[in-house]
């Protein structure tokens, strides 16, 4: 039983890696379950055994993305202010993944969407982590007078908002440079 479970988990991880590759090559809209299934030597029906919907597979991809972004550590304290800028630069090199994240985020605000719980949980965790990061950098008050808890959703909104602007017009929005400017505005060292 344990061996079968381990094989199933390995297969799921292989499918997620294949989905990441397909998304990186074709973008969110061009990534089909059929293309992912073909990449791992399954039928589409076989892939659906592991991930019952495209959304379920894409949520697994986003969870994997978050593991990379936090260095696999996850949990509170997995982020530092000085590491946010390289994260923004890294995101600028993987538009397919950023596009998938943004598209699913936008769709997830509708009631009953399969990614809604993922994003609700993720943003709660990110705000808490960001408050910890800001407290470590600034103490109980930022230079503008906000508490870390008040500023955390603003930092998160800037990061995600820049992604949307960059996806829509990458020639006009230099996402890493704009975020560096925001950090200066924030008063970061």
Automatic annotation (TrEMBL):
Cross-referenced InterPro entries: BetI_C, Homeodomain-like_sf, HTH-type_TetR-like_transc_reg, HTH_TetR, Tet_transcr_reg_TetR-rel_C_sf
UniProt KW Ribosomal protein keyword: no
Record protein name field: TetR/AcrR family transcriptional regulator
Keyword Transcription regulation: yes
Organism: Streptomyces gobitricini
Database matches in PANTHER family: HTH-TYPE TRANSCRIPTIONAL REGULATOR BETI, HTH-TYPE TRANSCRIPTIONAL REGULATOR RUTR
Stretches assigned to the HTH tetR-type domain: 9-69
DNA-binding region: 32-51
Keywords tagged on the record: DNA-binding, Repressor, Transcription, Transcription regulation
Superkingdom assignment: Bacteria
